[in-house]
TrEMBL record:
Keywords, ordered alphabetically: Flavoprotein, FMN, Membrane, Oxidoreductase, Pyrimidine biosynthesis
EC number: 1.3.5.2
One matching Pfam family: DHO_dh
PANTHER family (alphabetical): DIHYDROOROTATE DEHYDROGENASE (QUINONE), MITOCHONDRIAL (PTHR48109:SF4), DIHYDROOROTATE DEHYDROGENASE (QUINONE), MITOCHONDRIAL-RELATED (PTHR48109)
Protein name (database record): Dihydroorotate dehydrogenase (quinone)
Amino acid sequence: MAYVSENFWHDAVNKATTDLFTFGYKNIIKPNFVFNHTPDVAHDQMIEFCNVTKRIPPLMWLLREMLDYTDPVLETTVMGVDFANPFGLSAGLDKNCDMPVLMDNVGFGFETVGSTTSRASAGNPKPWFHRLPEYDSMMVHVGLANDGSDKVIDRAEQAWTNAKTMQVSVSIARTNDDKCGDLDEGIEDYCISMRRAAGRSAMVEVNVSCPNTHAGEPFTADPDALDRLFTELDKIERPQPTLVKMPLNKTWPEFKDLLDVLAEHNVQGLSIANLQKDRTGLEIPQQWEGGLSGGPCTVASEERIAQVYREYGERFAIAGIGGVFTPQQAYRKIRNGASLVMFISALMYRGPQQITVLKRGLAALLKRDGFEHISDAVGIDA
Ligand SMILES: Cc1cc2nc3c(=O)[nH]c(=O)nc-3n(C[C@H](O)[C@H](O)[C@H](O)COP(=O)(O)O)c2cc1C
């Protein structure tokens, strides 16, 4: 394979276009086409944009030529899955699987589609989003709106088959609607989606930590409930690795109790973590419901990643999530123990070229510190 990093001209073009996109997004696109709309409208338009542009192959080819930065130092194999780079789109931005063609061509290592649920769901009443630019954050209260895992997983499988380099993961969650019943009903709900996902994506992520549902978070409130859920999920044969999307706001003893349960089950990875619920020190209107993305997650998730890596070592692969805007922040998560890094807010606040900014910057940091492969840096500071 010819790497961009090893071709002087391609590397120069990649750097110049990335700088140009960074300037264009900040000064033209964001103020005139994104932040001039409410976040709910901007989100719908972004999905629409992906659905239109993905049907224009020359545009996709051009995007790949200009923006996809490849470098052997970024290649990695985690949980048996090969990645061109460690960066993934975190669950929630692409609930119905409209974005993989674009994400593949701009150079994401993987995308997490979903969260999707056994039944289609309209989610919570709108507004789903509030912007908090002073904190590089978004208040999120979607409540798992999606087309249902039968449809979404069909699309994800197709996207995975057709992707040129990107891996596709599917996030499954419990349906958020008025049919929601007791714990057994919730377990069966997850099992339906897991049966649909088995063997049809590179990875599957079980989201037990959505902060925005009627049913709350019974599977993280009680380790026994989590044990019951994974005892049933273990019965579903699947070749792909399973990650669990963890909550951010637990004390270490509470968090550890959950991990001790997961360590006994067919779980290979942890996604750390979901949205921030703690608003301490932040000026946010009380009536705004939901969890916080971006800035308010950065430090809490870094610390949790290091704690988990120190205590559990190689038992779980860690996908580090929360407030990654710069290569330095990604690098810190990796040095603290994350093998993969996911983000959403950086895409919304900085633009689609941020994947290239992160890849180029991380490759430079790894080389500066003498690492030949990203995997050599994982957990070095934990
Ligand atoms: C618009 C939006 C929707 C989200 N929906 C989901 C979801 O459906 N499932 C999930 O596990 N996490 C969801 N999240 C949480 C993200 O996956 C991620 O954990 C969080 O945003 C922190 O990453 P960030 O700081 O890079 O945005 C959502 C976040 C955002 C911003």
